[in-house]
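Margin note from the TA: students keep mixing up input and output lines. Inputs are the sequences; the output is the structure of the whole complex. Example:
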Amino acid sequence: MPHLTDQLSAYLDGTLTPEEAAAVASHLAECAECRGTLDDLQAVRNLLRTVPDRAPHPSLLPRTLARVGAAAHRKVAPRWMIAAAGAAVGLALLLQVRLLPAPHTDRAAGIWYFQQHAVFAAAHPMTDVALASYLSSVLPYEVLREWSATPQNP
Amino acid sequence: MTSAHVTLNSTLPVDELARTTDGTSARDRFAELLAAHWDRAYRFAYHLTGNAADSDDLIQQAAEEAFRAFHRFQPGTRFDRWFFRIMHNSFVDRIRRDRRRKIFSLDEVTGVVTSDAADPSAIAEGALDGPVLRALRALPPDPRAVIALVDLLGLPYDDAAEILHCPVGTVRSRLHRARLALREWLRPYVDAMKRGDL
């Protein structure tokens, strides 16, 4: 006859159906080992009841509610918005690669790129970093230096 | 009067507070519900983490997450179960993130706990919780959560299953295995308890 396992804990806790409980009781009447295990489990449960209640520090709840209030006032972008922004950046990179003409090294083309950048960045601020990174890789150093922040080009 | 310094309407069941439409803000309703279940929630956090500092962090993080999701809380359902579930999820996420936190197996810690077992008759009254708490902390997170909910907080199996997001049968088997592990680690105390010496 196999010994009882988790039915013993359930029996101890009174969570078995009447039929199940009767079957366990029947087994216990004939199995000293399972009766011993049941006694052990009862003792363990009694030991656990000696664990004192842990009270939180009185200031913890007010501090927590203050944090909740502060967090409620923070504007946290929802996950879908972050995901959409990421997708927009990726799409913008793809479009630049496909639509922009091949890089030019003359000054007029550089100015054109910066104009495009300004227009695009105004319409799509999230992609500004990605576009700037792209432009910095295709523009000649002289154009970048000329258009870096100066009193003439703030 | 709860520790939140908010007065609860004694004629209104606590979990009905979220249903009120008397002009109170969602934050006020959330604060009242949280305060009503605060002490038990803290006990759950404490037994999950095993120490005061981590339990403070855990319950604060859970409160923030719960408030962000408060619009999804269904009035009329049990706020404590809902909040416990969020807190347990936060705890599981923390464990996964924190690679430094070692998750013990039941067998690994047996020696650690039993070596601590002194003569039960020599234990001063009130000091028994020391070895019992150490044994609890040595349990892996899942069995520890079940013990905390069922044996320490007195929740029924189906509530524990709902909080832990697992079948009732899993709660039952985890609980049994955890109790058997505790029996081995706390053998001198178990025997003393059976003799009536404790």
